[in-house]
């Protein structure tokens, strides 16, 4: 984890990169507001894979369910561009945790959007939310390099 | 505007209806989290059309820009279903206003999601945010049936 | 099945209706070319449901797999509009069948697009394509009101 | 332009690369059929930019309009994967040209899909299709490294 204070993603242990596609734009010729949530989702999945959180309805076990998400649109994005999208966990609760998202435009060299999501641990076998396991807490703390 | 207290959309002056499409679902076989924002957008546009807010970068004038949005996922949605999506304004500021969104599943007969967005009035001619005009405030108050 | 010769969808046993959403449009301010395929998919799924073809990788059995699809864009679509999308089967082969799609704009009152797809019957248990069952052939012929 | 006969994209002068996103998948846990057309579009736009074909309704001049497109799905795609998407022109007509698309999965190391599109030159000032200019023909021939 870099500590470069000039990079808005310096404190994000998971960062993925996407090319902006022409068709991501809407009639305003800006990237449509829904596309940011697709990118946030991809960063979230990448983070969960790093945690070993891959359980699904089909496979059983405990997996994450998205309970809430938000996005602040700070600068419009256009094609062509490349975005870097970061994910980090900032809160661990009993059966949920909070993930923050940030998105940097390579063309603009600045933060273009950020947001936050709440993920609930769900037990697909018992069909109910589940306390976060000690293993999951440990995996998050290890990835973030700090104790919550 | 209905005052039926059993309908979560009773206080929403603008309500639009969409069929859930099979392809709106993701590998979890639930409607993907990004689709809700497309529906919120459609309700927002319908509301803005009711206000006469149709200015764009191409046409000039003052139009709304989305500054922030959030969604709370309260119940998963599946295909087939029909959703009713409401929009209402709950706050008018100097150069922005807050719009709330709510989404009801016809199959489940319950609120499935809600959220909130902040819209900023943008002057496409002067390329900067703009105070809400008295006409726009009046149009919102007339549509909401109350004074802010 | 109507025989109204003035309706381009007269010979389509399955027709579904969708509102055009503002966000379906791209920077050309036309409905983006990919959206037509989402609508075709929804009509295809509606048709398959009518046939009882609901098998999937998860449930096992024989289900349809999309092998090829095409679309001819005859008139651009804009928001706001409502589209009616038809599906019909025009060929039944040994292990595949051909489905035609047509899309009518309510605003324009004309055919806006048409296309064709090839669906292969897939045996999810044996993991290979499968001859169409006599029951499936009969279901298609009954829905189309003719013999192939 | 490579002539490596083992690469299905060897004869494609324009090739772009995309990461498969988790949310590109549908309930079959395969990349949804509509996503291929988004990728084809991005390759098409990249090709047109190479040709200098950037005219739009807003800017005037002569720009390309998509008249038809098709896709053959040869192998299902899954997340995670990276796709390379090629575009090449195979026919130049009086006022249209044909572009072929091919898509290779990095994980599978094989062609996963291919397709074809017809692009019509459209004069946004005169609002009608337009003969391809000699400059455009020359730009295509130069990019393809052959005479049509």
Strand and helix map with partners:
Four copies of one chain form a homotetramer.
Chain A: E1 14-19, H1 33-51, E2 62-73, E3 82-92, E4 96-105, E5 110-123, E6 128-129, H2 134-144
Antiparallel strand pairs in A: 1-3, 2-5, 3-4, 4-5, 5-6
Q: Give the termini distance of chain A in whole angstroms.
A: 17 Å
Helical proportion of chain A, percent range = 10-25%
Q: How much of the sequence of chain A is in beta strands?
A: 35-45%
Largest sheet of chain A: 6 strands, antiparallel
Description:
The structure is a homotetramer of 148-residue chains. Chain A is of the alpha+beta class and 148 residues long. Helices cover 20% and strands 37% of the residues of chain A. In chain A, strands 1, 2, 3, 4, 5 and 6 form a six-stranded antiparallel β-sheet that branches. The first copy, chain A, is globular and about 45 Å long. The mean pLDDT of chain A is 92. Chain A binds chain B through residues 27-29, 32-34, 37-38, 41, 56-57, 65-73, and chain B through 27-29, 32-35, 37-38, 41, 56-57, 65-73. Strand 2 of chain C pairs antiparallel with strand 2 (62-73) of chain D.
